[in-house]
Design brief:
There is one protein chain. This protein is of the alpha/beta class. The protein folds into four domains: 114 residues, no CATH class; 266 residues, TIM Barrel, CATH 3.20.20.60; 84 residues, M1 Pyruvate Kinase, Domain 3; 86 residues, PK beta-barrel domain-like (M1 Pyruvate Kinase, Domain 3). It is built from 18 helices and 25 strands. The chain has an eight-stranded parallel barrel with strand order 1-2-3-21-22-23-24-25, surrounded by six helices. A six-stranded mixed sheet has the order 15-14-18-17-16-20, covered by helices on one side. A five-stranded mixed sheet has the order 8-7-11-10-9. Helix 1 runs antiparallel to helix 5, helix 3 crosses helix 15 and helix 11 runs parallel beside helix 13. The chain is elongated, with a radius of gyration of 32 Å. The N and C termini lie far apart (95 Å).
């Protein structure tokens, strides 16, 4: 009997094996919901501050507060799990924080079969609108830029830019997008001339070039020192082995003659003595070190003569000069006049004690047993405490305060090179551990603002530390009808960095605002070993605020000064593509530096988003979720 064929069973619904552990996904959802609640609660706490920013900055302010809430937590474990699942790691969410969290939450809900409702109405910006806001704010502050290079180039103008319009035209033609005028140098007349030349050059080039005027601010510097001895050092150009390649040139003129070009230095002697010398003659002397030297006369004229030498020579007002007459007799000696005194300096070694005073030191400042120097802002002295660090001359010399009073600080020198360091007048002083109460705007700054309001597009606020500093500047500009001027926060102190979120929120009341990472003073304040970390965190925070960043201090500086770049500074310049603008300082080869920076930025443009941070907690701002409390 034939077997009855079995009918196939009814197909059972296919249940695929879970690709992800549901419990793990649910734990991730729980963490993300907690982060989301923290963001919205932070926004509620800062509602009053957000309301005070400009209408065009409101979404950016909300996103900044969300970023602070997100980064107050260590996200490394969460990031690793999300990356393993192939989801967003939140590592590129600065410009659209809440939208990124919502996107990941939505994907996790769908993967686990849970309902998800669109929440974009609660998000201030999205993954497209966030970067658009940053570009819009950047163009508003720094002006347009070419399509091939999205990063602007800012150049500090030399004093010659006030009298040499050709120099300014060369900078504009080379690719300068923003001209920086440093108000710590020159005067209002020179600044107006510089601005006029920039406007004309930009008009000829048929493109916009912005003008930034950088206020000097309350820069703390070393005070004057008694001048050193009158010594003139003349030295030839030497090769790598120390052999002289090019002689030095000394112009010797009659008494009372002014400066003359074509020589390394100039002195004056008696006119009758000078008139007896001819080309090819030799002047004999024994210099300040007891070395016998001969000066060869190579030029003569109505304004004196020019001599050359191939050996290093030290001249003082007591150095007798003589020459041999026609019959081989030595003509009576003449003594050089017009030798300026050398700048005063202190020689400091590790273990020395420096007296940093509120008043100018006495004449014994050169006494190595009791080195003393004044501070240009005497009110600082009474605000520094025992045990706090002091850095001098851009961090070359370091120390710790051993004794403190309202009139002087005794500083134990703990850092100096073997053999000691020279400390001169007008060198920077940093107190990274001290809470200093200083006005953000000095009397000179308030006077300089009158010119800023007339000719500048942007103003740089130096040594900004508190939101009140920003408010003070904006009020001063308003009183001068300069409300259109954009604001650049110069972050160059540790306190300024620690208060950065509050400063950004305060700056959002300006028509346009940005941040300058002033890496020179900032490195001294926070420590060179921490600078890379600090500047990275500033970049993240500014991106969350949709605020452009200016990457500044010593970019391609060797190239600008010598014409030859170092390998290290090429790598450093390439990092500038992470910012919206890179600043170059002045130098004889500045046009070459602009061309090279332009090339580097164009080449690096394709790598701008190559960034994978680990997202550890930013402890410097952990307490800033309620940023509105101080702002």
């Amino acid at each position: 009997m034939a077997k009855t064929p079995k009918l196939p069973r009814s197909p059972q619904p296919y249940v695929p094996a879970p690709l992800w552990d549901p419990a793990t996904c649910q734990a991730l959802i729980h963490q993300l919901w907690a982060l989301r609640r923290d963001m919205l609660e932070g926004e509620q706490r800062c509602a009053a501050v957000i309301e005070r920013v400009g209408p065009h900055q409101r979404e950016s302010a909300r996103n900044l507060v969300h970023f602070l809430a997100l980064r107050a937590t260590d996200l490394r474990a969460l990031q690793g799990q999300l990356a393993w699942l192939g989801l967003s790691s939140l590592g590129r969410s600065e410009s659209h924080v809440l939208a990124s969290v919502d996107k990941v939450l939505g994907l996790l809900h769908r993967l686990t079969g849970q309902p998800w409702h669109d929440r974009s109405a609660e998000e201030p910006v999205g993954s497209v609108s966030g970067p658009i806001l940053l570009r819009r704010h950047t163009e508003r502050l720094l002006g347009p830029v070419s399509r091939e290079r999205q990063v602007r180039i800012m150049v500090t103008l030399a004093s010659e830019a006030a009298t040499d319009p050709g120099l300014v035209r060369r900078l504009v033609d080379a690719g300068m997008d923003v001209a920086r005028i440093n108000c710590a140098h020159d005067d209002a007349k020179a600044w107006k001339a510089m601005a006029k030349h920039v406007r004309r050059a930009a008009k000829v080039a048929q493109r916009e070039v912005k003008i930034l005027m950088d206020l000097g601010g309350p820069k703390i510097r070393t005070g004057p020192l008694p001048a050193g001895p009158r010594v003139l050092k003349l030295k030839p150009v030497r090769d790598e082995l120390g052999y002289p390649l090019q002689p030095w040139r000394l112009r010797i003129g009659p008494a009372g003659s002014g400066a003359a070009p074509g020589a390394d230095a100039q002195v004056q002697v008696d006119a009758d003595w000078l008139a007896r010398l001819r080309v090819g003659g030799q002047i004999h002397l024994t210099d300040a070190r007891g070395k016998k030297r001969r000066l060869l006369v190579v030029e003569t004229g109505a304004d004196g003569l020019v001599t050359e030498g191939m050996d290093t020579c030290y001249l003082t007002p007591d150095t007798p000069l003589s020459f041999k007459g026609p019959h081989g007799r030595r003509v009576h000696a003449a003594y050089p006049e017009g030798i300026p005194p050398t700048p005063g300096a202190l020689r400091l070694h590790r273990g020395d004690v420096l007296q940093l005073t509120a008043d100018e030191p006495e004449d014994r400042a050169h006494d190595a047993a009791a080195p003393r120097i004044a501070c240009t802002l005497p009110q600082v002295i009474g605000q520094v405490k025992v045990g706090e660090r002091v850095w001098l001359d851009d961090g070359r010399i370091g120390g710790v305060v051993r004794k403190a009073s309202a009139k002087a600080l005794s500083v134990d020198i703990t850092q100096a090179r073997e053999g000691g360091e020279k400390l001169m007048a007008d060198k920077g002083i940093n107190f990274p551990d001290s809470e200093l109460d200083l006005p953000a705007l000095t009397d000179k700054d308030l006077e300089d603002l009158q010119t800023v309001a007339q000719v500048a597009d942007l103003v740089g606020l130096s040594f900004v530390q508190q939101p009140d500093d920003v408010h003070h500047l904006l009020r001063a500009l308003k009183a001068l009808d300069g409300e259109r001027v954009g604001l650049v926060l110069k972050i160059e102190t540790l306190q300024g960095f620690e208060n950065l979120p509050e400063l950004l929120l305060a700056a959002m009341a300006a028509p346009s605002a940005g941040v300058m990472i002033a890496r020179g003073d900032l490195a001294v304040e926070c420590g060179y070993e921490r600078l890379a970390e600090v500047q990275e965190e500033i970049l993240w925070c500014a991106e969350a605020a949709h605020m452009p960043v200016i990457w500044a201090t010593q970019v391609l500086e060797t190239l600008a000064k010598t014409g030859v770049p170092s390998r290290a500074e090429i790598s450093d310049a390439s990092m500038g593509v992470r910012a919206e603008c890179v600043m170059l300082n002045k130098g004889p080869y500045i046009a070459d530096a602009i061309h090279m920076l332009d090339d580097i930025l164009r080449r690096m443009a394709g790598h701008q988003t190559k960034k994978t941070p680990l997202l550890r907690a930013l402890r410097a701002w952990a307490a800033e979720q309620g940023a509105g409390a101080k702002a």
